[in-house]
Automatic annotation (TrEMBL):
Protein name according to UniProt: DUF559 domain-containing protein
InterPro entries in the record: DUF559, Helicase/UvrB_N, Helicase_ATP-bd, Helicase_C-like, Helicase_Restrict-Modif_Enz, P-loop_NTPase
Matching SMART domains: DEXDc, HELICc
Domain Helicase ATP-binding as annotated: residue spans: 188-368
Domain Helicase C-terminal: 432-585
Length: 682
């Protein structure tokens, strides 16, 4: 036998078969019985071929195990067929045992006892029976939680029932454990009649899939997904489009989310181009899911926004992605327009630049260290260039020739509040950039060797357009093929540059960007992140780091291989405190007590809008030459990650043991229970 556990040695073709092997057969008999078990075994009776779910063959008995799920055994025809089938098998002297989904889930110990009593009647099969077995309560057979929490709305019989069918079709198996746990937590929350839920999900945990699955599970008529900009809106567009690779509905790595069901009719709106004006109410009502950004919401009192085209009962479920940057007026108008709609606010971090918090009830939280421990996020290596001077000196050169000294990170942050100045910032001395670029080049070489054949990428964050062009020029001098990305570029230039960077066949190793590829941008091949600017907001910094935190999946990469994200930064930009916040993760939850829930939307990172010309004189900022050294550190050491895995495993075992002890008259000690769980279930 190639495995040591029954779940490894006995094959299954359905979830119910897998549950029987895991919770009943594994508790009843030792692993050696696997050589006597055959799955989907064909038996011919008078020209009819029956496929038995499982056949256990001993020296005297042939035991048939038939597993009854609700879907396939609930009709009158199925009822009659099952009885004829069973009688045929009994006539051939098979012993037939039937186990239903509900029996395995709710009466596990009794199912185990019934199976053991039959096995003991055969001299060979009896040798594998476990005396006085430990029978855990199944922890992965929860009934579908969505039907109870979201009953169908009253409506005419000919009205669409898409979401009713979706709730029955959703397969939680392909989702990650953290996504499944979040959905169950949301179901319990909404079942109590609450509406304002938040999930704090680490970057790399899969918020997009969670948002799509939640919309399918908790919507009655129509869902609205609101994003802060075009990048995330495009991510949801892809996730809901069955014609695109990477959609959430059918191409999750572990299988389809809604097998056997069509994709929801989705309307994706772009408010930045005025397209919302051309969309009719009828077109909106024909959609089951609407995806847009907050710019298109408008006001119910006007005719140029989404809210004016929809009535309060048209939307009953709202998903807000990157909720930590939700705009106050737009989002409050949204919630007021649909007061009875359930809400799901998602973010990796609810810490805002303005110090305000998102007011919501946190029903689930998944930390970065958990994402790393589960293999969804890379280990983070930070490389800090420490200059010899105590504080970095900057200088603004005004058009009239006067110069204004800027000393230290705080002074630079104050300058960054004026977008007119930011657009013209450059480093008069290129020495700091070159010192950083040396580190980047070395780390990129290591990543190229580690991730082959995947092509690793570098993501820079610059202060302004001129600063970005300067960084890109120096990167190219160091052999790192680089280009810039900023808002003043045309849409076609942006698309072409992104394609050269993102496509496997592209020729760019690096992008120097200005808040263009921040929250929601997903390219796991990003392996080096370089913030060349300070961040007053931890949330904004965390979003940049998150662009490279996702694990790369590739058929030629060992799934067990540890992957790393290299963060290269200047020690005088004030980023150490943000890294410490990542370590302790103590500032990442929303605070419901904060009544002023939403701050203003962030300003665009450009001096003027495309197509306009500024008449304001633009200053420049110079950075003095620096010398110093570089220090490497890990955000979480490998020992910390392993310790976290062990902590979570122990908590899960304790929860499982509590359920077992509460339903067993004479439970075995905890240590013995743990040993059995690990030996049978892993």
């Amino acid at each position: 036998m190639s495995g040591t556990r029954l779940v490894d040695m006995v094959s299954s073709t359905s979830y119910l078969e897998s549950a029987f092997v895991k919770w009943v057969l594994s508790a009843a008999a030792g692993a050696g019985i696997a050589r006597h078990v055959a799955g989907q075994y064909p038996v011919v009776v008078e020209g009819r071929t029956y496929r038995l779910d499982y056949l256990l063959t001993g020296s005297r008995l042939r035991v048939v195990v038939e597993l009854d799920g609700f879907e396939f055994h609930s009709s009158r025809a199925a009822f009659v067929h099952d009885r004829i089938r069973q009688n045929d098998l009994v006539g051939l002297k098979y012993v037939v045992l039937r186990f239903s989904y509900a029996a395995i889930r709710e009466h596990t110990a009794r199912c185990v006892a019934q199976l053991q009593r039959v096995l003991l009647q055969d001299p060979v099969l009896a040798t594998y029976v476990i005396p006085d077995p430990i029978v855990p309560v199944p922890d992965d057979m929860d009934p579908n939680p969505f039907g109870l929490v979201t009953p169908p709305p009253p409506r005419p019989a000919n009205d669409r029932d898409y979401f009713d069918r979706a709730r029955k079709c959703i397969d939680l198996g392909p989702l990650r454990t953290c996504q499944r746990d979040a959905l169950v937590a949301l179901a319990n929350y909404y079942r109590r009649g609450e509406v304002n839920a938040a999930c704090v999900m680490s970057v790399g945990a899969g918020k997009t899939a969670l948002g799509v699955a939640a919309a399918l599970a908790f919507t009655r008529r129509r869902a609205l997904i609101v994003t802060p900009g075009r990048v995330i809106r495009g991510t949801f567009d892809t996730a809901l489009d069955p014609s695109l690779a990477g959609n959430v509905l059918y191409t999750l790595r572990a299988g389809p989310l809604i097998a056997g069901l069509r994709a929801p009719v989705t309307q994706v709106l772009d408010g930045e181009g005025g397209a919302i004006r051309a969309v009719s109410r009828e077109a909106l009502l024909s959609a089951e899911v609407i995806v847009t950004n907050f710019h298109s919401l408008g006001n119910a009192a006007t005719n140029d926004g989404l809210l004016a085209k929809l009535e309060p009962d048209d939307i009953d479920f709202i998903v807000i992605d990157e909720a930590h940057i939700a705009a106050a007026d737009s989002y409050q108008r949204l919630f007021a327009r649909f007061p009875r709609a359930r809400r799901l606010l998602m973010s990796a971090c609810f810490s805002r630049a303005d110090g305000k918090s998102v007011a919501a009830d946190v029903v689930y939280r998944y930390r970065l260290i958990d994402s790393i421990a589960d293999g969804h996020a890379k280990h983070l290596r930070a490389h800090r260039f420490s200059p010899d001077v105590e504080q970095t000196e900057y200088e603004i050169a005004w058009p009239d020739g006067t110069r204004e000294p800027i000393v230290g990170k705080d002074a630079l942050l104050a300058v960054l509040e004026d977008e007119r100045k930011v657009a013209r910032i450059t480093a008069t001395s290129e020495e700091p950039i070159r010192r950083i670029m040396t580190i980047v080049r070395d780390r990129l070489a290591i990543q190229i060797s580690s991730l082959a054949p995947v092509r690793p990428r570098v993501l820079f964050a610059a202060l302004g357009q001129l600063h970005a062009e300067q960084i890109s020029r120096i990167a190219n001098e160091y052999g790192i093929a680089s280009a810039t990305l900023h808002h003043s570029m045309t849409d076609s230039d942006i698309a072409a540059t992104r394609k050269r960077f993102e496509a496997d066949s592209g020729n760019l190793q690096a992008i120097v960007q200005l808040k263009m590829l921040g929250q929601g941008y997903d390219l796991p091949a990003i392996s080096v992140v370089v913030p060349m600017r300070p961040y007053g907001s931890f949330g904004e910094f965390y979003q940049l780091v998150g662009r490279g935190i996702r694990v790369v999946h590739h058929p030629q990469l060992d799934a067990r291989q540890e992957q790393h994200l290299d963060l290269v930064y200047h020690g005088e930009l004030g980023l150490d405190s943000h890294l410490e916040t990542l370590r302790v993760e103590n500032d990442m939850d929303p605070h419901p007590a904060d009544a002023d829930a939403f701050g203003d939307a962030p300003l665009p990172d450009r001096a003027t809008r495309p197509g306009t010309r500024s008449t304001v004189p633009m200053p420049t900022v110079s950075v003095l030459a620096e010398q110093g050294d570089t220090r490497q550190q890990f955000l979480h050491t490998l020992d910390q990650v392993q310790a976290r895995r062990q902590e979570r495993e122990l908590h899960a075992l304790a929860n499982s043991y509590a359920r077992y002890a509460a339903t067993t008259p004479n439970p075995k000690p905890f240590e013995e229970f743990v040993a059995v769980i690990r030996s049978t279930h892993g």
